[in-house]
Amino acid sequence: MSDNTVELNKMPLLDHLIELRQRLLYSVLALFGAFIVAFFFAQGIYDFLNQPLADILLEMGASQDQSRRMIATDLTEVFFTQIKVAFFAAAFFSCPIFLSQIWFFMAPGLYKHERSAFAPFLIASPILFFIGGALVYYLIMPMAWSFFLGFETAGGENSLPIQFEPKVNEYLSLVMKLIFAFGICFQLPVIMTLLARVGLATSAGMAAKRKYAIVGVFIVAAIFTPPDPLSQISLAIPIILLYEVSIYMAKIVERKRGEREEEMEEELDDETGGP
Q1: Dihedral sign computed on CA atoms, order 92, 94, 97, 98
Q2: Contact in structure between 274 and 268 (CB atoms under 8 Å)
Q3: Taking Cα atoms as reference points, which of 152, 150, 144 lies closest to residue 182?
Q4: Please, which residues bridge with residue 153 across strands?
Q5: Which of 251, 263, 126, 262 is CA-nearest to residue 197?
Q6: Distance CA 102, CA 99 (A)
Q7: What's phi and psi for 71, nearest 5 deg?
Q8: Burial category of 244 from C-beta neighbours within 10 Å (exposed 0-12, middle 13-18, buried 19 and up)
Q9: Residue 28 has what DSSP assignment?
Q10: Which residues of the chain have pLDDT under 70?
Q11: Element (H or E) spanning 173, and its range?
């Protein structure tokens, strides 16, 4: 084999590596640009994230004729918290760019029917993540914060009052954990449908393991949510519904695969002159 032939065989791999580097560079630049923009709005974003808690605390403070606040126990805590907020917002808003770069890298190597099948998942994934995050913000957080604030005590003659004063950094960490946990859990239909497409999961198998899935869902909900029943149930019920949606999507995938196989068999019969 000549050196020229070897060089020609190496070129496609080299081209793929160059293309991958270019796509990664675009993604990193998009993340960095979004981070710079988000940093200037970090305080506003943080105020938005703590609004559910602020509403409850301000209401409690007004009813008890006392002010409520958040505290920072380290000189650099607020600054680094805003850095985390900016990175969190940048990752969230640049996610469509990440997915589009993945698509541009993979699309040339896919058949037409594979591209048409894979594209909807890239669209559905950020939408489902957004729905999970919205569920946390508008439903889970108000319920959870009200539950935990219920453990405050006014104190008495022989006891000291217990008043909740959340730390800036710890509050952000908890909120980010909840949003990412719900967002990732809401990717269940996408993951299970992809597994069904490659033959690693079937609708019948998922339906047969439904009771084990329900137990697993409640375990996951107990791990990722605050330790109050309302939060755990609020995460578990949507995931169970999404599991049922996954079974339905797997049935659609299997039906389309069967129709495609029948068409291929008919085309083969026509070419060979079979029955």
Answers
A1: negative
A2: yes
A3: 144
A4: 162
A5: 251
A6: 5
A7: -120, 155
A8: middle
A9: H
A10: 1-13, 61-67, 109-117, 155, 227-228, 266-275
A11: helix 168-185
